[in-house]
């Protein structure tokens, strides 16, 4: 998995690319490092470039959500497609996460 | 031991010697008494205290077994057959295959040096031997040997531990004899595959009897794999076996209770996907609840269809509520359950089996081997995806006897 970070005034967009699996824990730590923002800041995961996530990848979404809550950040995901969308739906994560259209 | 102790400086040229080598044993094979004493003195400077000597090839072969040296210093002209031939003899014996052998030689042609290496010498020392170089080379090879031995001991210990853990994990899933009895009592045929990608893994499944007409089956996959998810699989199994029978009789209630307890103990980002189903042969139903497991397949006369297995994974969100669903399961019908190790397996070209691919494979299995589709299915799976798994794999074929 690769990622890019784009900062705006009140929000940060993180675009995730490729396959997000068990072996991406170290990369994901760098993603989480981008959550060092002031309270109220909005963090958005853009998943449109993700081809696949496994259950470890879902765990990383949950870690991101938890990190955002602890830092009082606003956290949302958007753009999941195909297998990624299916897996999020099966795990009902859309019920627990803010999903942007 | 030769008298190497006298007037030895603490270290040669005041150099730092590195790790202590006092317990290392070096065997010197040289026919010259003068050379043996000189080398012994050098070794002593290298911090080596246990030095043994041999004056000929036969003497070396006689003593090496009892000495068990960590390093051997052989003179290239050692009588009667010479150091090179002796080196070949030693390397032919598995006991001395890894032993560092330093050959000292007065002949410095490239051809001689190459011969020594070809015969299995680890390194060469030019004669006359310089003390600094001798100390450095001996220490280098002893330290390297120490590290390799440490790594090997560590690997052996971990392998032993993992073998034991693996046996414990395999004992978590139902005992085949018990399962057969239970299946017969409920007029079912149950076949299973349970494999881990590493020595141990995060899949777990079990079956439990509720009463004479109802048999429950529970399949879970802890996120991640390896030791951490195996520990969580054991925790989940323990929680499950502690639940009283009345809680197990109701799948959504069972998942809710497990979720609550797992949410307390798992770290953020860890969870289990799970499926729990109860086969009721009096009511001809399958009652089930799921927590984000791969979709189960239910086969009846009309073919296979996918059951809804959506649900929040266990342990991820405290307070999650699950839904019990029910569907007819008639005599002759089949329930196929698996972990994502099956659906997410990738073949040589990187293509994933996927849920559609799995459904297709199951249909083909039933057509190709109507009597025993499951072994056929798993054989085709192994053909395409190999047996070296990237993830843990559980698959269950549960078929009601035809009425």
TrEMBL record, chain A:
One MF annotation (Gene Ontology) recorded for this entry: anti-sigma factor antagonist activity
Domain of life: Bacteria
Pfam family, one: STAS
UniProt domain STAS: residue ranges: 1-101
Name used for this protein in its record: Anti-sigma factor antagonist
Organism, as annotated: Azospirillum doebereinerae
From TrEMBL, chain B:
Span of domain Response regulatory: 25-142
A single MF term (Gene Ontology): phosphatase activity
GO biological process, one term: phosphorelay signal transduction system
Pfam families reported in the protein's UniProt record: Response_reg, SpoIIE
Highest taxon in the source lineage: Bacteria
Keywords, sorted A to Z: Hydrolase, Phosphoprotein
SUPFAM superfamilies: CheY-like, PP2C-like
Database matches in PROSITE patterns: RESPONSE_REGULATORY (PS50110)
Residues modified as 4-aspartylphosphate: 75
Protein name per its UniProtKB record: Response regulator
Native organism: Azospirillum doebereinerae
